[in-house]
Amino acid sequence: MDKCCTRCQHTPATPCRDYVICRREGPLCHDDEICRQKRQGVLTRITARPGSGQQKVVVCGGLNCGAAGAFNLINAFRTGVVNQKLDEKVQVTLSGCMGFCEQGPIVTIEPDRTFYRGVSEEDVPEIINLHLKNNQVVERLLYRHPETGAFCQTYDEIPFYRQQTKVVLEHCGFINPEDIAEYVAVGGYRALTKALTEMSPEEVLAEVKKSGLRGRGGAGFPTGRKWEVARRVPGKKRYVICNANESAPGSFMDQTVLEGNPHLVLEGMLLCAYAVGSDEGYIYVRAEFPLAVRRLHLAIAQAQRFGLLGENILNSGMNFRIHIHEGVGGFVCGESTALVATLEGNRSIPRVKVPHLAEKGLFGCPTVINNVETLANVPKIVLNGSAWFAAIGTEKSKGTKIFALSGKVQNRGLVEVPMGITLRDLIFTIGGGVKEGKRFKAVQVGGPCGGCLPEDMLDFPVDYDSLAGTGVTMGSGSIVVMDEDDCMVNLARFFLNFMERESCGKCTPCREGTTRVLEILDRITNGEGNLSDIPLLEYLGGVIKTTSFCNLGTLAPNPVLTTLSFFRSEYLKHIQDKRCPAGECLALCQFTIITEKCAGCGACRYLCPAQAISGEKKKPHRIDPDVCIRCGRCFEICKYQAVKRR
């Protein structure tokens, strides 16, 4: 048996199960007094426990907050802490996405769990002087409760967080994703250690099966059954693939997990490899996720350095290595057979799934493909037991699901909730309702392959089986909220435009069908539609749905078919009345100037390409409807909101 500790050279009878990783000295075991002291020091530094005398400034390092200046905040805090001679008492670190993207950049102070929102570099000196030096909260940066108006000092008091059940996202936003020691300190790699020292591969597989975990990529296939097929197929070589090709509009769940806790995904892949007997894996990630790619490379290098990847992992005899493949961004690459074709160096085109990939996949070998969220659930299941996981969610959809809330919702961001939650709770309780007090109109569930649901269907539970009865799929978990200013016909056209562009072109129904449907929608939104277009859309949608080669093709007409089912009156108004009720289809809009609001500044008159606007300076202007080409420039430019679009 090899030594488990680089500090004391301890040689255990079995692989050491209780260790923490020091960035300087590697794994520190529990059998040596010096190691115990170092272990405690590492844990104290990471968690900043109450009574330790330490404080920890955590700056959200997710992509959204990063784009808003969070990385400059980290440098500002570090400089300020050093200048104030607080560097021995205060640790400044970054984290992954904290989920509440609407409030970024976000800074939290541990251990008192203070939550600051909308922090800028100018706020850093005030936080350091008041909070870190004098323990006084900076109230103006706190979140206000939307109903009571009271300040919420900690994130536990904020409704957005309080209503969630975090499993996969438990440590995202609280640990540094670029430091393996922080992941280990919160229980990371303990599930792997438990599996390698206390469980056989068959027992790990049985736990995943009993948990009821289903694929979170959209199809919802039972994860344990897929692993079981791959394990029982004869052959020495098997592959594990993590599908991180997240490319649907409104989806950013997998990207956030990879950026915020990459080691959790690596541990899930290791457990899958142990269960099915694989020694090699791939992470297929979009090259457009540079932060996720960088942190994955860093996480793999750290895991290899500390013996958690590579040869003879934790002295168990298990070997496993992981490669990162950066995808070119095609939507179809997320389809499992097309993904495998890409890894083999071929064009990303789907194939018939017989035999299944679990039987004959990458390079003709049994292959398990799971998405990021699916694999990230596995360590929690192995560590806490299948019964714990199965107790969350519904009878047929176990566990939690991560959703990306976007669109016209107050609290945009990432949420994790139990399966079976209603859309109403998601949008109004956690999401805070529609922005600016406007009327809710519809919600697009599941991205371009999902569908639209009206207000009277908000009480449907969100799980795989309940949504299927509405003609909508849960997909990967994007939730886009629309208000009264959104046009459902134009929305269907937007998603069909995306699907038509992303079609691989292999099968005629998808390649030609989506093009014909898009042409009809273009005609309707341009005021050239007729009543015969509606049955034609339904017919073409049905043909595409039943005859396309892969699931992406069969789901492509969903946005059109669901909007026709629930918002048919809007189609009729576009066709019969030549009017867009939401005022979004410019060809069907009329622009007028509200006399009482017009200041006569002349901005719209100067920018009108058709010279349809006339009026004297500092006097109300008017638009000539016969000359107006309905470009919408006047509506966009008017700072007095004096141009009415209807």
Notes on the protein architecture:
The chain is α/β, with parallel strands linked by helices and 646 residues long. Helices cover 38% and strands 15% of the residues. The protein contains 25 helices and 21 strands. Strands 14-13-17-15-16 form a five-stranded mixed sheet. Strands 4-3-5-6 form a four-stranded mixed sheet, sandwiched between helices. Strands 11-10-9-12 form a four-stranded parallel sheet, sandwiched between helices. A hairpin with a 5-residue loop joins strand 13 and strand 14 (413-418). The longest helix has 18 residues, at 508-525. The radius of gyration is 27 Å and the shape is globular.
Key structural traits:
5-stranded mixed sheet, globular, 4-stranded mixed sheet, 646 residues, alpha/beta
Which spans have pLDDT < 50 for at least 5 consecutive residues? 13-19, 42-52
Radius of gyration: 27 Å
For the record, give the distance between the C-alpha atoms at the N and C termini, rounded to a whole number.
77 Å
Number of strands: 21
**Number of distinct helices:** 25
Fraction of residues in helix: 25-40%
Largest sheet: 5 strands, mixed
Main sheet strand line-up: 14-13-17-15-16
